[in-house]
Amino acid sequence: MKMLNEMFPSYNIQANVNLGNYTNTRVGGPADWCFWPKTQHELQQVIRFANEADLPITVLGNASNLVITDDGRQGVVILLTEMHQIEVFQNNITAEAGAWIIDVAQMAYDYSLTGLEWAAGIPGSIGGAVFMNAGAYGGQIDQVVQSVDVITPMGEIKTYPVADLAFGYRHSLVQETGDIIISATFAMQSGKRAEIGSKMTDFNERRAQKQPLEFPSCGSVFKRPTGYFAGKLIMDSGLQGCQIGGAQVSTKHAGFIVNRGQATGSDYVNLIKHIQHVVYEKFSVNLETEVRVLGRK
Question: How far is the C-alpha of 86 from the C-alpha of 84, rounded, in Å?
Fold first, then answer.
């Protein structure tokens, strides 16, 4: 494994890193290697090397919509937080994958561009938002994406127009291809700055009122089942406030699991499974996770 550092001595690569220091839940075991690329070139080089060496690759943005188990991850975990440039050209915004979607929404406001007001308070990265087709308050990434640049598993740069990305509810083609999102371009509309700011403020106030922002969490845990709301099903199952270890179904919003202190990945996983079991027993509804649960393999 020393070969990774030896091959790229000038890159920010660290061994045996506790991933709990980088996830929004504050849980997660060790990664064999963590790599913080600063440029597309660095990323290409390490991806090519990892594939040739048969090292598994995991890509994280802001690590906000996932749970990493206590055994951590094999191979190379790539954290894109250093790739965060945002550029505006006329009505288009291009943002690197590690840019916070909050910052992109703020940039849109600064330039009086409308279409991302709903994203003003989402604590995720552009790469993660595109990967999951994130959305809130009637808005969704696929409504504004024009194109997405990726690095393929072979280390080549490729551009997908929006029509080729197979966007669906919390789904994109990139979930199936193994490509790594490096940037996205958004086609925005000119708007009135005051109206854009008013919407952003309204959405943020609603989030603060309804969501448990005062605790670490992985965001909304479950996808919305057809004909139901996950949070209401959980609440009607008597599970609001239910706690396993340090992980708790939020007393503020039952669709969230929060870390009340010293939670582990196992606490999160066990609570998710318990919720799924109880809701199915009571309502015959399968709750599918929106968050990704990542383990050692």
Answer: 7
